[in-house]
Amino acid sequence: METKGNIVGEAAGASLFVGRFLHSLDPKRRLTIPSDWRGVAGPAEKLFVLPGVRHPCLMVYPAREIAHRLERLRQRSVADDRGRQMARVLGSRSELLACDAQGRIRIKDELLAFAELREQVVLAGTFDGFELWNPATWERVVGTTDQTELLEATKYVEF
Question: Rounded to two decimals, what is the model's pTM?
Fold first, then answer.
């Protein structure tokens, strides 16, 4: 498994979360965020940790990205039951964290259990944020993606 990451897009004025890392939870169940990614998030920016919506992983976004995504939610009516349910469930299960001086975060046990994160954690860049995966789940869900599936997904998002 690749354990090195990098940042692309700075020349175009955008810093992105790219690459893949394999890190361990320390004895206090803290996770070190790669230094490259701490630079992308910003030195004082907090991170939102949300449960995955399709897979047992955790989605992590810097506050500025969540603000962008929440703007779409704010535009929905308070009478929109589906929108309110999404906000209710994700908001109540999410967490807002700051990195400590060593670049670590301590994710609440409920979220660690949801994603089955025990010792090793795959940190996978998703450009606008990153995801945290149990290594076995990562291999089962993502590691089996073949070129045809990638082509179809690329067409779907018109990349």
Answer: 0.83
